[in-house]
User: Fold these one by one.
Assistant:
Number 1:
Amino acid sequence: MAYAKRCIVTGGAGFIGSALVRHLVRDTAATVLVVDKLTYAGCLESLKEASVQPWSAPDAPCDAVGGTPPEPASRCQFFQADICDADAMAAAFDVFQPDTIFHLAAESHVDRSIDGPGEFIRTNVVGTATLLQAALAYWKSLSDEAKTAFRFQHISTDEVYGSLGETGFFTELTPYSPHSPYSASKAASDHLVRAWHDTYGLPTLITNCSNNYGPYHFPEKLIPLIILNCLDGKPLPVYGKGANVRDWLYVDDHVAALRLVNEKGVPGETYNVGGHNERTNLEVVKTVCAILDELKPRESGRYEDLITYVADRPGHDLRYAIDPTKLMEKLGWRPQENFDTGIRKTVEWYLANDWWWKPIREKKYAGDRLGRA
């Protein structure tokens, strides 16, 4: 419980962001300000375990910037704001007085980026630049000691590296080669973060992760979509022949890595976070089906009978796989879950928590296909 930083978490009502917030509140002594716009994928119910309360910010910042901020009503507070809003971001820094920021706010679904790339450029590129400027102004106002301790941590994706062939792994030195509007916007945000470090000296950290999965995952993504379509008796869409390969990372292992990088990472460095759990999309779907056959059998037939092959997604990268050696050797990170244990935990969570996903399926996203271009 020694980790007692004041943390801003942007995108903290999203999938990975909420997992990080729950981890910080449950396993550390940190005080957290969640900043989230609450788009379709933001869900305050994902923060129920963190006992999140509305942010009761004073009308003005502390008398001396870098001084002692007001005692919060709760260790986890929520500020609904758009990271593109420069005034709101400046207020979040000046009033909350963070020691660190975990930047996870982003539009993240490749299919949606194909349908509407503009929002991805706005949030992922313009929003990151706006946040960097607010952080820089705040950081410059700090004492030398506080400047040294401050961190701006940017959470990104392995998709910025493009596509691998049948062999090889992404490392921190792999050249960028994004192929979708989503990955291009995240690549741009990575470059901005590096530029603010190299130009202004802002102490930044970047992590690039492989595909996450686990509880509270918005059901437009493959694994929760397949689980819930199975439960609803709907077709299980598989792009092409299902041969595309992803490296799967259980979300709790990811957020443990994020905290470790925040504590021990070297400013200006990048750390790749991967699970060494490669599976084809078809293997993932069949694994989910097999677990559900065991835990909640259909009245007739197997869940695998619902698999339907559909036209492939435009620009669909063949394979992603991350080499996390730097993170493991330099900082000592080790994942606690492999794919077999993590996917079972995930399926069991969705079976036990329809209070969370049923309103989403009914009101936000029923599983329709996106990204046909």
Number 2:
Amino acid sequence: MFELDLRKFKKYDKPGPRYTSYPTAPQFKDTFSHENYLDEIIRTNYGEGLPDLSLYFHLPFCDTLCYFCGCNMIITRNRDRVREYLKYLKKEMDMIRSYLLSDRLVSQLHWGGGTPTHLTPDEINELASYIKVNFNFNDNSENGCEIDPRELKRAHLEALRNNGFNRISMGVQDFNEKVQKAVNRIQPEDITRQTVQWVRELGFSSINLDLMYGLPFQTIETFAETLDKVIDISPDRIAVFNYAHVPWMKKHMALIHPEDLPLPETKLDILKMTIEKLTSSGYVFIGMDHFAKPDDELAIALKEKKLYRNFQGYSTHAGADLYAMGITAISQLKNIYVQNIKTEKEYFDALDKETLPVTRGYRLNEDDLIRRDVIMKLMCNFELIIPDLEQKHGIDFKKYFAWGLNNLREMEEDALVSVSDNKIEVTGMGKLLIRNIAMNFDGYIERKEDTAKYSRTV
């Protein structure tokens, strides 16, 4: 394992995109319309060798509010509201499906939220059955669902498993009771362990646990205790997210008192300890916030340089057309991004008018495609073979990216990257600051066109 230099973390700790897409969501245009999306769907559904489908369903409802949450969610216990939403989700599915060739296969399915298991087991069966009627799945498709163990019964997991789900992800954040109370997420350790036991008994192939550092009252000692418990539980994957306190974007985060948050130096100490503890326990650092066991598909894809990144994070399914349904959901075809309407009423109204519920989107130009290729290769492979990229895009790399390469000189001096005529290679330390490295190839940052507020990179 590489040596972690906290001075460099401090030096490069600044706001920056997470690059689940390029261009990033702040660049999406309100002028992108239902017609623009429909034209692209039709245009990309002819010919041979079409990519597989990746389906995402946004289920925004939650039982209680977690103060740290950065997701697009709705707090409700109104079951009629949930059923109404499911009715329109099916309607959107019908519209999308009517434009897709029937022989295109689904290689990836993900339910996110919110809390998908806010649905009852019967509602899970109803939605999952409707999806299976409308789409054909690969035999080895990756079907994942996010769950909340606090309001979960074994029947929820049985419904998911019986409908072909094979991956589960759930939040833990921190096992410390004081931290849990401060963020309004009371989740005793025994509930988490019981849920993991059920997941394993039911034969799910993979389980991921989400942790978060930078929450109120966390210390290096208390978070180490949480990590020890998680390592003992032994999930296949672990995500350790940096809490981004952005109350100007998520108003409920104002319920977290800034004076209770750990100091930046403490956060860095926690991060350093986390990486050292997880990697010494056998987990492979995948990139950004993710760790996986060596035999996990993510770790194998990283080794074979087949890793991919989309709005759900790191994935092994590169090249699939992502159709995302539900409020706020973001779709990604080869040359476009499309985001759905953000409120229920407007979402329902659009579908009642038989129009796709588009609120904004973006069509990539040639420069975007080149820069996306560079950024995604760096984010996923941690290296870039320059002659391959020049041949693929017909550019002189040094001229095209003169601004970024000039910026990389300081990063090379700090041992974050190694730059030669043929290759850019990210070092172990650089992998932890990959967002900073990628920003040097972002045309919107280079041209000072990106004025969005982002979370900090560390």
